[in-house]
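Could you join me in thinking about how sequence relates to backbone shape in a protein? To get us started, please write out a protein record for me. Would you write everything just below, so we can both look at the same thing?
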Amino acid sequence: MSRHPLFVLAGPTAVGKGTVAAYVREHFPEVWLSVSATTRAPRPGEIDGVHYHFVSDDEFSQMVEAGELLEYAVVHGRASYGTPRRPVEEALSRGKLPLLEIDLQGARQVREAMPEAHFVFLAPPSWDELVSRLVGRGTETAEERAARLETAKVELAAQAEFDSTITNDEVRRAAEELVSLMKDH
């Protein structure tokens, strides 16, 4: 049994989950951050094995069939994402401070598999700020942005399913609050 529970960070698209996780990775080496597998193409600056494990659709399907994923989903009707199971189990058994940064669908699957985990909802300061962040990153087409915003409305409504909420009004502050919460458990 691990000293620390698994922490799951989720929230709506473009809320800054990846940015907060990157800050944690850079400034809090005591936190073990899971690296998800995905079938989507890397965004500028993303490194395979660091930000994601970039895999083909066939490779992802094989991982699902072999039971190698703790959770997985097709997100925004486009790309598949999933959390490799073995590294999470190893981090827990070693007593690390483990963190998953995943989407709402994945968080629900992890709750089924590991109800003892602690679920943290990363909230935007406002809807307008969420829209601004999504448009501002410039990584999606207008059609993809529209689909993500529709998904975000549903994701925001799920906030009550979580054990804690952190507002991502400033990345450093949100990351520090998250790590403080993790250390207190």
